[in-house]
Specification:
Rossmann fold; globular; alpha/beta; Cysteine hydrolase family protein; 6-stranded parallel beta sheet; 193 residues; Isochorismatase-like_dom
Length: 193
């Protein structure tokens, strides 16, 4: 089977900050953890993406707790970590080169936030020709005002971001659908990734 990388985006302690707006999908972390465990068990590659903000007032500013990975998503020593300064995990990070060097052409994207870093990363992945899946119930986002000033719920923002991606840049699946498809299973050749 073709190697498939699980890309977990921005699962950092800062995502629990009380300063953030209301969010959706409170089960997202459990679904991400299920995917994380399945990929590790299968010996498939896991990429942990961490946002390092250039703004000193950000919950992701270097040198404070918010920038650290949440305890359940701490990468293992052999797993790849990408540090980014913009929403897109491909911009100025070497991620594309890292994937190509390992022959990885399939990606599964989970994390936060759906309409920001997840969407930006999945769009680039699709544009670069990677076969990309975004896991709808393993992502979440926050309420936001639209350009006309109307406050949109986190679920509305989430669903619109997924609609932007589905069929254009990626396939959008649930955790159950993805695990049923077996995308994380080790290839017949037992590739060591």
């Amino acid at each position: 089977m073709t190697p498939t990388a699980l890309i977990i985006i921005d699962m950092q302690k800062g995502m629990h900050s009380p300063s953030l707006p209301p969010r959706n999908n409170t089960g997202a972390e459990d679904n991400i953890a299920r995917l994380h465990a399945a990929w590790r068990q299968a010996g498939q590659p896991v990429v942990s993406v961490r946002h390092i903000s250039r703004s000193p007032s950000s919950v992701f500013a270097p040198g404070q707790q918010g920038v650290e990975f949440q305890a359940r998503f701490i990468p293992l020593a052999h797993e790849h970590v990408v540090e980014k300064n913009v929403p897109d995990a491909f911009v100025n990070t070497g991620l594309e080169r890292w994937l190509h060097a390992r022959g990885i052409r399939r990606l599964v994207v989970a994390g936060v936030s759906t309409n920001n870093s997840v969407e930006a990363t999945a769009r680039t992945a699709g544009n670069l020709g990677f076969e990309t899946v975004v896991v709808a119930d393993a992502c979440f986002t926050f309420e936001k005002r639209d350009f006309g000033g109307t406050l949109r719920s986190a679920e509305e923002v989430h669903l619109m971001a997924l609609a932007n991606l589905d069929g254009e840049y990626a396939r959008v699946l649930s955790t159950e659908q993805l695990l049923r498809e077996g995308l994380c299973e080790r290839g017949a050749a037992g590739q060591d990734l």
